[in-house]
């Protein structure tokens, strides 16, 4: 089973890029973030034509998350993080695909920090961590993937010193991410490539992609039973070089069958 995550940075304007990537790489499950489209503007027909069924949580102009599946239809379990029902920002959707629970998230950016946006980010992570603990306690196979807007360590940034005042790299953000991992989750890409500098996002400015001046903020967290099934993964870096593309590249993992 191949599961991918991709922050598309606007599904309407990037639809040709998304469809080309789906056609070329054919993930079984694709989690999308930053749809930037209201619920009714999700391109369901084009996605269906590409061979995928979908569940999505849209929002006008901002945010938005979706789970696409090529085989079994994703069965939605929840949208939004628990105890966050008054939150109008569409940042989380969860579905069962085959035997796996898939959570797709777009964690708040939090800039400028300090400030209300950073406070919101930390509150969101706190509520999310309660849910992740419940998922771990369930013992079920779970993958939580998406744009976490957290640079976990110095190894995950081209020049870490340039990020010290950024919400993505603030000690509080890194600590919150570390606390979630400590519940028993595995950072799949880091497990596969413990010593490599791997990036998933490159700014549009200053030829960041050409210089490979990136950061790693799109992550896969696996529950213990899925960690045992992890057999491969990587970044579809070439997609970041396509015309009219997102500033993120798709990231993917491959899981062995459960039996």
Automatic annotation (TrEMBL):
It comes from the Bacteria. GO terms for biological process: DNA repair. PROSITE patterns: AP_NUCLEASE_F1_3, AP_NUCLEASE_F1_4. GO terms for molecular function: DNA binding; double-stranded DNA 3'-5' DNA exonuclease activity; endonuclease activity; metal ion binding. CDD domains: ExoIII-like_AP-endo. Its cofactor is Mg(2+); Mn(2+). The record marks 218 as: Important for catalytic activity. SUPFAM superfamilies: DNase I-like (SSF56219). Mg(2+) binds at residues 7, 34, 147, 149, 247-248. Keywords: Hydrolase, Magnesium, Manganese, Metal-binding. Residues 4-248 form the Endonuclease/exonuclease/phosphatase domain. The record marks 149 as: Transition state stabilizer. Coiled coil: none annotated. InterPro entries: AP_endonuc_1, AP_endonuclease_F1_CS, Endo/exonu/phosph_ase_sf, Endo/exonuclease/phosphatase, ExoIII-like. The keyword Hydrolase applies. Probably binds two magnesium or manganese ions per subunit. The record marks 248 as: Interaction with DNA substrate. The active site is at 106, 147 (proton donor/acceptor), 248 (proton acceptor). Its EC number is 3.1.11.2. Belongs to the DNA repair enzymes AP/ExoA family. This is Exodeoxyribonuclease III. It comes from Flavisolibacter ginsenosidimutans. The gene is xth.
